[in-house]
Specification:
39% of the residues lie in helices and 16% in strands. It has helices spanning 19-32, 51-61, 76-86, 106-116, 136-153, 169-173, 185-191, 215-234, 255-261; strands at 9-15, 38-45, 65-70, 91-94, 123-129, 165-168, 195-201.
Length: 268
């Protein structure tokens, strides 16, 4: 049986100017994670509104919240990387800070990951938003981007843009890290020999604030990033490790003689 510490989950939430959404989302996260060993890691990505002050005040009230602040905005992937690095947990769940993801989906995603993982095969559970609550332009651009990405990378994931994802911390830390990598996590995990599970999750309309990641900005960088990830896939030949072969079975012929000739060491 795994030690209980191996079930600790860190919920990593990157935010940029999401002051009005912080406290409601924190309440929902805590309600969803009742009964779990968890921590919440908020990464304030250089917000210019009251986000920093609200997070600082909330961190003083409880012990389950840790807050890290970027001096200047570095982007969503950089904030996620900062949060995962700082997390004191074996499992990571990422969550958008705008309130459109429902934290109540995390427990079921965790159970799915635990069912599907196998030794040597990392698992990524990626949220698949049902009945998305976005405008028509965003929905259309996302649909086109998903089809292009899937055809070029073969990641077989219908919704890589969903902020709700769950994986082991060590899996994430072993992946190539670069700007906008969060959109390519399924392809990167598959490249590492892992398994990606698309899990249906709820999607809600934004209650406050506005999106800080423009559609056309994502499209421009997405083309460059797509080419880069495709290059990474071509340049990696993942070795197939033979099970049951040990170093001893391929040791030099005289190794037994050298061991036998070695004088015994006596402890005092």
């Amino acid at each position: 049986m795994e030690h209980a510490a191996n079930h600790r989950i860190a919920i990593v939430v990157p935010v940029h100017n999401e002051a009005a959404n912080i406290e409601p989302l924190l309440r929902e996260i805590r309600a969803a994670m009742q009964g779990f060993d968890y921590e919440i890691v908020y990464v304030d990505d250089g917000s210019s509104d009251a986000s920093a002050a609200i997070l600082a005040a909330q961190a003083l009230l409880t012990t389950d919240l840790r807050v890290i602040r970027h001096r200047a905005s570095c982007g969503q992937s950089a904030a996620i990387i900062t949060g995962v690095r700082a997390a004191d947990a074996t499992w990571i769940a990422t969550l958008d800070g705008d309130g459109q993801n429902d934290p109540a989906d995390i427990p079921a995603m965790f159970e799915a990951a635990r069912r599907e993982e196998r030794p040597g095969a990392p698992v990524l559970v990626a949220g698949h938003r049902q009945r998305r609550q976005d405008d028509a332009i965003k929905l259309l651009s996302s649909r086109i981007a998903n089809k292009v990405r899937a055809s070029l990378l073969g990641d077989a994931t219908p919704d890589t843009g969903c902020g709700l994802k769950l994986f082991r911390r060590e899996t994430f830390m072993s992946l190539p890290q670069f700007d906008h990598m969060h959109r390519f996590l399924p392809a990167l995990v598959i490249r590492a020999g892992g398994v990606v599970i698309s899990h249906p999750v709820r999607h809600r309309p934004r209650q406050a604030g506005a999106s800080h990641y423009g559609t056309w900005g994502r499209l421009k960088v997405g083309i460059v990033d797509l080419a880069g990830v495709a290059w990474l896939q071509r340049r990696w030949n993942r070795p197939d490790i033979m099970i049951g072969v040990t170093a001893q079975s391929h040791a030099p012929a005289d190794v037994d003689e050298r061991i036998a000739a070695r004088p015994l060491e006596h402890s005092h």
